[in-house]
Amino acid sequence: MTNLEIEAKVIRIVEKVLNKEPVEDDTVELKSKWPEETQKAARQIAAHANSSRGVPIIWIIGLDEKEGLVGANKEEVSNWYNAVKSCFDEGICPNLDRCLNVPFLENTVIALLFETDRVPYVIKNVAGGQITREVPWRKGNSTDSARRSDLIKILSPIQLSPVFETVHGSVSLADLDHQGKKKRFEVRLVLYVTPRTKDLIVIPYHRCKGKIIFSSESEINLDKITLNAPMRFTGGGIVQDSLTVQHTYNEIVISGPGTLTLEAKAEVEDIQDIDDINIIEAKISIKHDVESEIPVILTPNFIRANTEHSRESARWVLKQ
To answer: What sign has the CA pseudo-torsion 205, 208, 211, 212?
Structure first.
């Protein structure tokens, strides 16, 4: 995730908390303040990382679903993280990849992005006793010791999710009738995909979902999402132009790093205040593996662009 994607995700979560909406994201943990009990914090981080099975997790300090937006500072993050790391067996701890200040209104929250690609994570029992180590596991919002079935989930081979980089993209709005009441949003992204496995990756379109978000209270679900290999015009017509990415009517097949396009549409009626919408966020879920519990999530942001010489009613381009 880029810093911009992390910040956009955190802001969206802050808005949900302030609007008293549930935060339904298994990759996120909210804390009203820096955890003072180092051992407890280490156990919770280990449990969260183990249950995520390789997907990065985000801890937001200064935000709580009950207390709301409290705010925090990151003056002591280095000392705090080193103390937490000391609780992990053999020094193997989720890597603190990013620590970001995210301002919101008059407060600032701290976003901690942990990499979890070295599961399982084991915690030392600093209190002593016969049980010297534990593999924590997260169930809902609680932390428990991993059961055998949980360990199998950690240790069983999983198809690592490919990495999708958003190169450029746009969201356009066009009128479908003369009155301008019926409109169609079109989302188009150019992505560069890098597999993290030598196995062939097949993504059926029916496992891809998405929506465009105008604010915390306004969003529209996208219709069928398609992923396409790059195309090239030749004397014989249009052909797919990639050695590593190919598509059919129902799926895309990826054998190595390459470029692809993502397209989706949504038809709406009587959308209000379209001229006041300057920023749009798209949230695209791509589930490549039917066994995977957590899909790849793309959250590009778009800003309004000039449509003076265009047939489009409105247009937004990727915010860099």
So the answer is: negative
